[in-house]
């Protein structure tokens, strides 16, 4: 699969300090993305509908007026950072000013990053929903030391941008733009409940961090411009995360060493890991990969077929599925 350049993922728009702003014109079926902060809310009431007008501040300090016909009547709080998508851009025939921008989706973002950095991430992300899942997952980490490590790690643009845009493999599972992010967050979410219910909180957090970061080295190996193909991605994961582990080590040496050990174990085949949570990580990795591979195998296959196979340059994998509900 030929990858698009990172620049091709960007959704460009222009902003001004006016309340109603001229936006870059796009095809009507293409979603525009915006990260902003809610400044104020006006409500328009009629016999037929209730429409909320959200006055938001953009990352460059500009102000935009957005319409949101929210049926459940719940509103974000003033000061919330929002991710919004909008489709319709009704333009005044006598000017180029865009009026009545209608929101198609709105999400409140809870994150330690500032608006400008979030704006950059969302305009690179191929799948914004998966990026939201990543941000939410980091905020759910209980141990502040591990949360800080993950936050600072993804504050590095050279790590974060390829992590959210590259595929997880060339010919196998999640081999599409954004696949690395999807696979990584799937693995972490799959084991989250079990980890917290069976392990001490700090060990559960380390286990979840391992699940999230187990393929981090692929930001190097899956990059078409990168020459580091002789080094396994597992080793590159440790290399990339080491500066952040050194910082963690000053606060919590045992935690830093435990995370090193967990990420190192994934390169071996020991039967009994020193940290049982690694069994969960391996299970989640295999489950996420298997589901994605089976989906590839049955792509384009009639619904009544219960058997298919996935042919890759290195192997042939056979899959079954149930054809009755």
* Helix count from the secondary structure assignment: 10
Strand content: 15-25%
Number of strands: 9
Q: What class would the helix/strand composition place it in?
A: alpha+beta
First-last Cα distance: 33 Å
The helicity comes to 40-55%
Mean pLDDT across every amino acid position? 85
Output the strand order for the largest sheet: 1-2-3-7-4
Largest sheet: 5 strands, mixed, barrel
Number of discrete domains: 2
What letter string, H or E per element, gives the SSE order? EEEEEEEHHHHHHHHHHEE
Q: Give the overall silhouette.
A: globular
Q: Residue ranges: pLDDT <50 for 5 or more in a row?
A: 1-29
Describe the structure in your own words.
The protein has two domains: 21-109, Nucleic acid-binding proteins (OB fold (Dihydrolipoamide Acetyltransferase, E2P)); 116-325. Strand 8 and strand 9 (316-320) form a beta hairpin. By secondary structure, it is of the alpha+beta class. It has helices at residues 115-124, 128-140, 144-153, 157-165, 179-198, 201-213, 218-221, 233-251, 253-265, 277-297, and strands at 32-45, 50-58, 63-68, 81-86, 90-91, 98-99, 101-109, 307-311, 316-320. The longest helix is centred in the last third of the chain and has 21 residues, at 277-297.
């Amino acid at each position: 699969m030929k990858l698009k350049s990172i620049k091709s993922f960007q959704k460009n728009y222009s902003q001004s300090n006016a309340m109603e702003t001229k936006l870059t014109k796009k095809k009507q079926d293409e979603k525009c993305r915006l990260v902003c902060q809610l400044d104020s809310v006006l409500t328009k009431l009629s016999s037929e509908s209730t429409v909320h007008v959200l006055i938001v501040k953009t990352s460059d300090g500009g102000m935009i007026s957005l319409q949101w016909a929210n049926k459940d009547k719940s509103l974000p709080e003033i000061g919330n950072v929002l991710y919004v998508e909008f489709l319709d851009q009704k333009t005044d025939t006598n000017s180029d000013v865009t009026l009545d921008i209608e929101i198609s989706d709105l999400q409140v973002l809870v994150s330690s990053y500032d608006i400008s950095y979030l704006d950059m991430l969302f305009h690179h992300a191929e799948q914004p929903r998966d990026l939201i899942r990543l941000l939410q997952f980091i905020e759910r980490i209980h141990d502040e030391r591990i949360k800080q490590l993950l936050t600072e790690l993804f504050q590095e643009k050279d790590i974060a941008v390829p992590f959210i845009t590259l595929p997880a493999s060339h010919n196998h599972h999640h081999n599409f733009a954004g696949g690395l992010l999807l696979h990584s967050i799937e693995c972490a979410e799959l084991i989250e409940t079990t980890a917290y219910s069976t392990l001490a909180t700090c060990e559960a957090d380390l286990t979840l961090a391992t699940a999230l970061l187990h393929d981090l080295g692929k930001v190097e190996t899956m990059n078409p411009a990168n020459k580091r193909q002789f080094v396994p991605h597992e080793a590159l994961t440790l290399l990339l995360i080491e500066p952040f582990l050194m910082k963690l080590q000053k606060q919590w040496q045992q935690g830093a060493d435990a995370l090193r050990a967990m990420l190192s174990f994934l390169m071996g085949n020991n039967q009994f890991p020193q940290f049982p949570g690694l069994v969960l990580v391996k299970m989640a990795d295999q489950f996420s990969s298997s589901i994605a591979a089976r989906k590839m195998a049955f792509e384009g296959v009639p619904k009544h077929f219960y058997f298919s196979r996935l042919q890759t340059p290195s192997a042939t994998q056979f899959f079954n599925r149930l054809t009755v509900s």
